[in-house]
From TrEMBL:
Residues 13-144 form the AAR2 N-terminal domain. Belongs to the AAR2 family. One of its GO terms (biological process) is spliceosomal tri-snRNP complex assembly. It comes from Solanum bulbocastanum (Wild potato). This is Protein AAR2 homolog. It holds the Pfam family AAR2_1st.
Length: 394
């Protein structure tokens, strides 16, 4: 990158200034993870918008790590976010407004420029695909008190729910950590996720109708969209992405469980995808496609943390014996790909998701759609609209 262009990015991009960071601390921003060196003081050239920042302290040898702590921010152009390391609590804290402003001005005068690592702009596209529905409103409505998301605040739920590989590893991490008991001084009680009912219980409804409502979760989806999200489909997708980022990058068990609930709700609908909420489901399938694709890539590249922090691969969590995603996807793929008429964009992204799971995890969905043999290039977002017709002559 030319010096002039880099300088413009430094001036107009946001900056994360981290003071007094111990060496070998694990620092992350979005999909980027690295260890702090002796001169590290943060990250510059951060594109304005929503970002997820996380960290994990290490012992002196740099081979044992505390549970990850993460938080979302919405950065404005040229904004300087200042945090200082508290060695007693091993966490980042805010400075006073006056002190923070003094450091911000020093950053804008480029006094810390040599100690700031550049944001890897070649990874920004992946982050946008993971977070394009997350807004300031999403963050403010879900984030815990204090803003920090960590399994440290989730110890009460660990003993009851760890079943999958991901949940077992996160539970074991907390059990063996010096933070195994939640800090009573901390007001954090976890995130404020939307409550997702697993079943419908209504008075005055016949048994058959109630059974149908629970087999097709469209009624639950419509109720939640109206009551919890004010009718906003994008708000629901924002929570889906918030939970996925918090679980994949922030290693939050609570987030993993919420992501499972939302995915199960959406993939459990049969009326909405084909008739009433086609656009929502096209956006949802596209969102989960990139979540899984980027998640698998992150696992294959993320070797620096392997064996050091508490991590498990995404495919490990999805390949567990009680796997929920495989069964739900099989039914959903059959619903869409065997439908006599279906929206072309929904068809395209459904097929791409199926191919991703088959190629990456080796799952075989054994679909019998008449056009199942058609193949689309993985990144071809401009594939033609396809409509399945009964008459083969058409």
């Amino acid at each position: 990158m030319e010096a002039e262009a880099a300088l413009e990015l430094v001036k107009h991009g946001a900056t994360l200034l981290l003071l007094d960071v111990p060496q070998n601390t694990l620092i992350g921003i979005d999909t980027q993870m690295f260890f702090s060196g002796p001169n590290f003081k943060g990250v510059k050239m951060i594109p304005p918008g929503v970002h997820f920042i996380c960290y994990s302290s290490s012992n002196r040898e740099g081979n044992e790590f505390s549970p990850i702590v993460g938080f979302f921010v919405e950065a404005s152009p040229s904004e300087v976010i200042v945090k200082k390391w508290d060695s007693k609590d091993e966490r980042f804290v805010k400075l006073s407004e006056e002190e923070g402003e003094r450091y911000a001005q020093a950053v804008k005068k480029l006094e810390f420029d040599r100690q700031l690592g550049p944001y890897a702009l070649d990874q920004y596209g992946d982050w946008k695909r993971l977070s394009n529905f997350i807004t300031r409103s999403t963050i403010e409505s879900i984030e815990p008190i204090g803003g920090e998301i960590t399994i440290i605040s989730e110890s009460e739920m660990v003993g009851n729910v760890h079943k999958t590989a991901m949940e077992k590893v996160l539970a074991e991490q907390l059990k063996n950590s010096k933070f195994s008991k939640p800090d009573k001084k901390s007001p954090s009680k976890g995130c404020y996720y939307t409550s997702i009912p697993r079943v419908i219980k209504l008075k005055g409804v016949s048994g058959q109708d109630l059974t149908n409502m629970n087999l097709d979760k469209t009624h639950i989806l419509e109720t939640i969209l109206t009551k919890q999200y004010g009718g906003s489909e994008d708000s629901l997708l924002g929570e889906l992405q918030f939970a996925f980022v918090a679980f994949l990058i922030g290693q939050s068990l609570e987030a993993f469980l919420q992501w499972k609930l939302l995915v199960s709700l959406l993939l459990g609908c049969t009326e909405a995808p084909l008739h009433t909420r086609t656009q929502l489901f096209t956006k949802f399938i596209k969102a989960i496609y990139y979540q899984l694709k980027i998640g698998f890539q992150k696992d294959s590249k993320d070797t620096s943390r392997a064996g050091k922090g508490a991590t498990t691969s995404l495919d490990e969590s999805l390949l567990s014996a009680d796997n929920f995603l495989r069964h739900l996807c099989k039914d959903f793929f059959s619903l869409v790909l065997d439908a006599p008429m279906v929206d072309g964009d929904l068809l395209t992204w459904t097929r791409k998701l199926r191919e991703l799971l088959e190629r990456t995890l080796g799952w075989d969905f054994q679909l019998n759609s008449s056009v199942d043999g058609m193949h689309l290039e993985e990144d071809d977002e401009f594939a033609p609209v396809v409509e399945i017709l009964d008459d083969p002559d058409h």
